[in-house]
Amino acid sequence: MIKFAIYGKGGIGKSTLSSNLSAALAKRGLTVMQIGCDPKADSTSLLCPKEKITSVLDLVRSSKPFTLEDMVKESESGVLCVEAGGPVPGLGCAGRGIINALESLENKGAYKVYKPDVVIYDVLGDVVCGGFTMPMRKGFADKVYIVTSGEKMSIYAAANIAMAIENFKKRDYAKLGGIILNCRGVENEEENVAELAKDFNTSVLAKIERSPLFAQAEAKGKTIVDLFPDSDICKTLLGLADTITSDFN
Amino acid sequence: MNQTARIISIYAADTSGFCSALYEYGGMVVIHDASGCNSTYTTHDEPRWYDKKCMMFISGLTEKDAVMGNDDKLIDDLVIAANKLKPEFIALCASPLPAMIGTDLDAIAYAVEQETGIPSFHVKTNGMQSYITGAGNAFVELAKKFIDDKSYRNSEAVNKTEKETTLKSENNDSNITGSSDINVINETSTISAASDKIKVNIIGVTPLDFPKKENCESLKKFIEESGFTLNACIGVDTSLSEIKILPDADVNLMVSSSGKPLCEYLYENYDIPFVKGVPYGIRFAEKIKDLLKESAKEKRNIDATSDLRKEGKVAILGESVLSSSLAAAFFIDNGINACVIETVGDGDFDILKPFDFRCEDEAYLEEILKDFDVIIGDPLFKPICHDKRFVSLPHEAFSGRCFTKNAPNFIYASLDSIEESNK
Ligand SMILES: Nc1ncnc2c1ncn2[C@@H]1O[C@H](COP(=O)(O)OP(=O)(O)OP(=O)(O)O)[C@@H](O)[C@H]1O
Ligand SMILES: [Mg+2]
Does the structure's ipTM exceed the value 0.85? Predict the structure, then answer.
């Protein structure tokens, strides 16, 4: 089973890229499960309409018994979508929520029943507490890919995440798999990100151009892979999907 | 109000079960918790505290450490203490606080093991489950860590073809290097082949259910006098070497719910079946003796109480396996029919009959008890038993050491004394 997590600064494009990667991997014939680890519960919105999905923590909140099928919804393109969800903003403990959701999923046998070939954890931007490292703990993701642009703040956030992974080495957590450059069109973008990669002894796995196609696809609630299969961006995304699968082999 | 106890006591928590299960195995047993609570696990729940040593620690978690995620402090403390004390292993468990903030004790155990080379593991607790879960999980984690899988898996494969050749081939096998543990294993299996006695593990003994020395002695006496060889008694009067040789047994005797996870683990991984039941009384003990033989022969798990229960006006309150066994013993030894009222809210529910009750709620319990003539249970239940005839049967996990001194011992002994002991 290929299990990886996508981390990166808030708003940098993690959910968009996770969903496109899911679609790309599904296109390659793999069974993919994408798990949104964010109280916003918007990770899979390009794959599955929001009203179709009830987040795990909404199910927990209801205090009624629920099944695995209540948590996992299949998208049109065959991706298994899960949203961890979380408390109402400003209340409770979102980090604990992620732990609870991921444990519920495992306890109900999600990995054993659906037997996904690939599991993608799309994690909220800022790793503010222990709960948000849950996806990189043993038994969850084996690799972490960091999405960043060439902007200073984005690189700063990426470096913090890379550092955290480095610090967790002693603990047998997920390893850093590489960096995904999602362009914002700033100056020296490629050089800046290449330097970051060098600092952490890793590589830039793909460069995704800034493109209006993302907004167009988003307006239709679809991924670029599904909506614009002939575009250059789609080719880049398929290439990235292949790089990741071969990275695991 | 539901699930509240205004009058009666509550059962020891999973953290106590964890400590109790691991007490005698020579490890460093550490609860990640604020300091000052050691006494809960020791003076309240641990009768061995006064005559047997155990490296039991509280991490001394502070608010600052919790807020800052200062796990390194725990790791450093563990490494320093371990290097000094040289324990056989390090076992960690969580109190409610680290359980809530999701401290990754698996990872901390891994880091400590990397640094010290001492086998380390985490037993899942959160301070809010019962002692049964804590002890049950602790036994399994200990077994997973210390049963040398390789030597057993290898020998088992050969074992299926022929037992004698196994011994020879094992001795000649150059792959198995001369570690002392493996030598022990070979020696014992040679002895067993020679004497042909069935080897039995007693599983699930903790002072929380079996607080008196006599309880444990009677269990052992029962095994020996029944013509079996006692392979291991988990976990009183025991040591780590017994964990290592658990798979040598032909059959397990599960004497409490705390023993269930380990019995199931040994059945699934090493094909060792188990018999469920405490050998109370004379004839019920006799019955268990026969069932142990049957189970070993047919490789089948057996509930010794299953056809020895009838609904009656006597209520036995407490843990499910002990209470059901006592009910079965009353039935076959004394012709008394009794219902079990499972009051822990945790453990083996399969053993219960349709006419038994599961009840953790004080008000509901008080209601149920109105329908019985005689009530057998821990003395701290007495205040809600109306003016029914009450027979006192102290349970350490419920009332600590308060009544242990006067607790009767019915294991492999006549039940008639229950009248006398309560005069
Ligand atoms: N390469 C790109 N070109 C143009 N727009 C993009 C590109 N990548 C992402 N976007 C847009 O950026 C916005 C934010 O993306 P997304 O929601 O995926 O970010 P995120 O990292 O998941 O955010 P959060 O941290 O809030 O979860 C979306 O509207 C998306 O369409
Ligand atoms: Mg997102």
Answer: no
